[in-house]
Design a protein that fits this description.
702 residues, alpha/beta, Chitobiase, domain 2, TIM Barrel, 8-stranded mixed beta sheet, 25 helices, 15% strand
Length: 702
């Protein structure tokens, strides 16, 4: 199959390309520039690495050894060199790494590097340790193999990031995510050159860090699921070794049940408080407007900003956490506080009147100012979600935009540092192409836009599906934040995305194994192939539909202990099979490729012939209700596709009446069931209409 990643003419002389590679180079993120010389460097067992850097740079030497062993495992060459130390500094080695400055990762650090590969040797040059770490990840992605062995393309790469803040926010409060899972995500982040891990550590559902000063926080706020301080130090060190900063978030003044379960005297309304969902379920069916009214009118738990004891507590608490997390930033949330519990408290209302605070927005601004002063005292820069923005907000406070793009314009105008998360919410189940084409990331960004952050909220995420929900889509966001703005072809992205997904699987990420484990659970341990043939082309419903359904589900469905094991909980958002099917249809419709029809026929026949096997499996297991509708729908869609191909093969004209009949049938197959939908219907429609329509740049949220 024709595979084009970027338009490329490889000449005998070097060709300099701006953010381009060739069909065999699946780099992600795409570097700033590449110069291809033609030819390859062949790897052999005598491959040897030298490092010319500060001999005490343990982060560098650990990274070099990790990369070296990864390469050894991928090639099975059994390198003669066992490990690399400061003693390995020969000028005669095949791979020489030169680093000018020993440095732990910081936000505005020089992350640039130059990687040069000739037919005889390789060199990696970087100003800082962090730049070398980024270059090593590029080096590993360049490995190629064929029947003759393993090689690397001859080239020169000059690379540096577009934005300094390239983050992933993981919500570990709503569902606790164990340390080993977070570490695997750090490894994946490092592989695609991300540098900020934002941990959402407290919310209404839980408080997830041990506090030695206020031990009731983790005792009463976590149901025993929290990180010890030793584990936090271990995690911070693990991230630092991979060029990643860990930024903690403790949400306040709202989303604070995790705090108030331990210290109800700090609340705006009397307790007791118990960690759990923010909104109490009535069990009755609610429409969209009912849910919006619930969100706006419920007196949700919040700190009492009128009490000095609140700030005394926060001073001590922040002081402890500031010592635990060395990052110069601390995120205070400050989102989604509707102010109802403040309005309902006469003492708070009197405080507002006394201090000439005209509404709860002004009171929140007062709270943010007080907390920011505490953070400044402990040498931390304040970050928060967009709701903390006010006209009097300190210019030093970082504003993270997640919902309303007007906040982006206001923050830029006020001169506040900005992080963009709107368009990067992974829990909205949008395909990677939507995140990749985020319109809020301007081609020419103002200097106070630090970058962006993928966000994974955990209402429908736990330790068993977290990696499947985050990856490989997060890699698309990583590229959007690293690569030049001219790199924006979604189809090209997908060609590289699934290749990188393979590499992430190889380094230990469990996004694929968790998916297949979930399928085995549904089949009771039977062969998963019939079920997987279907679920490989299912995708979760998009937007807030799944979350809102959860808000009105029976109470037992909302528990933190409730299983997230339905098909909608385990399938990928982006179907690799769908992408391949779509490319083949494009190759047939646009390029009339000779073998495309045959490939399409085989795929459609596979889906059709799978149905009897899947139907038998469904009839043997209780999971049948989960997939029965879509099992039949895929069969019918495949049948329609085969009928279309049969007519096309004989050059039979498709009559308008026949097209209308089949279109109506396909429309009925688009309907969601079990919170999932068939992903391949638009492609079969393309066959019917002989035109492959562009994919949407966005989808409705509600």
């Amino acid at each position: 199959m024709k595979k084009i990643i970027f338009t490329l003419f490889v000449l005998s002389s070097a060709v300099t390309l701006h953010a381009q590679t060739n069909p065999e180079i699946t780099l992600l993120p795409v570097p700033k520039s590449i110069s291809l010389q033609g030819g390859t460097f062949t790897l052999k067992s005598d491959f040897k690495v030298s490092v010319k850097a500060n001999q005490t740079d343990s982060i560098l030497y650990q990274a070099v050894n990790r990369a070296f062993q990864t390469l050894n495992r991928r090639t099975n060459l059994y390198f003669e060199q066992q490990r690399i130390t400061y003693k390995d500094s020969s000028d005669n080695s095949t791979f020489i790494i030169r680093v000018k400055q020993k440095a732990s990762v910081t936000l505005n650090q020089d992350e640039s590097y130059q990687l040069k590969i000739t037919g005889k040797d390789i060199s990696l040059n970087a100003v800082t340790t962090t730049g070398a770490l980024r270059g090593l990840e590029t080096f590993l992605q360049l490995l190629q193999s064929n029947a003759s062995g393993f090689s690397l393309p001859q080239l020169t790469i000059e690379d540096a990031p577009r934005f300094v803040w390239r983050g992933l926010m993981i919500d570990v409060a709503r569902h606790f995510i164990p340390l080993d899972v977070v570490k695997r995500n750090i490894d994946a982040m490092a592989a695609v050159k991300m540098n900020i891990l934002h941990l959402h550590l407290s919310d209404d559902e839980g408080f997830r860090v041990e506090s030695k000063i206020f031990p009731e926080l983790h005792k009463k706020g976590s149901y025993g699921e929290y990180y010890t301080q030793a584990q936090i130090r271990e995690l911070v060190a693990y991230a630092r070794q991979r060029g990643i900063i860990v930024v903690p978030e403790f949400d306040m003044p709202g989303h604070t049940t995790g705090f108030l379960a331990a210290y109800p005297q700090l609340a705006s309304a009397p307790g007791p408080y118990e960690p759990g969902p923010r909104f109490k379920r009535s069990g009755k069916k609610l429409g969209l407007m009912d849910i919006m009214t619930l969100i706006q009118t419920t007196p949700t738990p919040a700190f009492d900003p009128s009490k000095e004891s609140t700030y005394t507590f926060l001073d001590k608490f922040i002081g402890e956490m500031a010592n635990l997390f060395p990052a110069p930033y601390l995120h205070i949330g400050a989102d989604e506080n509707n102010g109802v519990s403040w309005k309902n408290n006469p003492e708070i209302v009197a405080f507002m009147k006394k201090n000439k605070l005209e509404d709860t927005h002004a009171l929140q601004a007062y709270f943010v100012k007080r907390v920011s002063q505490i953070l400044q005292k402990h040498h931390k820069q304040t970050a928060g979600w967009e709701e903390l923005l006010s006209k009097d907000l300190s210019k030093n406070v970082i504003v993270q935009v997640w919902s309303d793009s007007s906040y982006l314009r206001k923050a830029i105008k006020q001169g506040n540092p900005v992080i963009i998360s709107k368009g990067f919410y992974l829990d909205l189940f949008m395909p990677a192409s939507v995140h990749y084409n985020n319109g809020l990331i301007p081609s020419s960004a103002p200097s106070n836009i630090l970058g962006g952050e993928a966000a994974l909220w955990a209402e429908a995420v736990d330790k068993d599906n977290m990696e499947t929900r985050a990856w490989p889509r997060t890699a698309a966001i990583a590229e959007r934040l690293w690569s030049p703005s001219s790199v924006k072809d979604s189809e090209d992205l997908y060609l590289r995305l699934f290749s990188v997904s393979n590499q992430l699987d190889e380094i230990g990420l469990q996004h694929r194994s968790n998916y297949e484990r979930g399928l085995r659970r549904l089949t009771g341990g039977e062969d998963i192939i019939p079920l997987k043939t279907l679920t490989d082309v299912l995708t979760p419903i998009k937007g807030y539909k799944k979350l809102f359904a959860k808000m009105t589900a029976p109470l037992s469905h909302t528990y933190q202990t409730a299983p997230l094991t339905r098909v909608s909980d385990i399938v990928f958002v982006d179907s690799e099979i769908k992408r391949s099917f779509r490319r083949t249809i494009g190759n047939y419709l646009n390029h009339k490729e000779a073998n495309a029809l045959q490939i399409l026929q085989e795929q459609l026949a596979q889906w059709k012939e799978n149905y009897p096997h899947l139907e038998a499996l469904i009839n043997r297991h209780a999971m049948g209700n989960e997939v029965a509708v879509h099992a039949k729908n895929l069969y019918e869609a495949a049948q329609i596709g085969l009928e279309i191909l049969a007519k096309l093969k004989t050059n039979e004209t498709l009559s308008p009446e026949w097209i209308k009949q089949k279109q109506e049938a396909l429309n009925s197959l688009k309907k969601a069931d079990g919170e999932v939908e068939l992903a391949i219907i638009p492609e079969i429609e393309a066959l019917l209409n002989q035109k492959l329509a562009p994919e949407p740049l966005d989808y409705p949220l509600f």
